Predict the 3D structure of the following.
Amino acid sequence: MNTNIKKAVVLLSGGLDSTTTLAVAKSLGFEAYAMSFRYGQRHAAEIECAKRVAKAFNAAQHVIVDIDLRVFGGSALTSDINVPKSRSSEEIGEGIPITYVPARNTIFLSFALAWAEVLKSSDIFIGVNVVDYSGYPDCRPEYIEAFGKMANLATKEAVEGHAEIKINTPLINLSKAQIIQKGISLGVDYSLTLSCYDPGKNGEACGACDSCLLRKKGFREAGVSDPTRYKTPT
């Protein structure tokens, strides 16, 4: 048994960014422990995508955590609020949209931190991005830096000097096109992924929400064929 293998917890939604992040972690030699969340989101089809992605990349383990953020609501993804559609790039880039789920990344990273400590892992990977994104405050570098500082104050392994927790954000300064190009170079099959905020019953993407529009733009600018199943336009 190889006791020197590096372990990493990788937050995996089943979307384009988190899948690429998993591929990056694997390429860096980490044994990947994938963590997904069934949090009451309307796009639960992404969980099936996460399962397929974890299997494709031979994750050492894939856990799906059940928490119900619908008890708080406050987002189009966890409440009966319409998902914005067909917004312009300028509109997407302005303000914080209703698809923001309050404190979601803080919750997810906290679970990942707990598992990392149990695994005696020093590394957590998350696919946040500040170039082509929807303005979420918990995707910014200053937030990631602050969480990392907190993590090293809050865990037994760090306080006792056994490990320093690192929050890895390999995509944070990449455009969506650059993310796709990186993923292709690492063998990512993007047909396994789903990025849509409002998919159909069979898992097909709506093609009009902010996430779909950014995904389409990324494939177009990367010069790569988009394998996504979109709903037939009405």
Q: What stands out?
A: DSSP finds eight helices and five strands in the chain. The mean pLDDT is 91. The beta strands are 6-11, 30-38, 61-66, 123-125, 166-168.
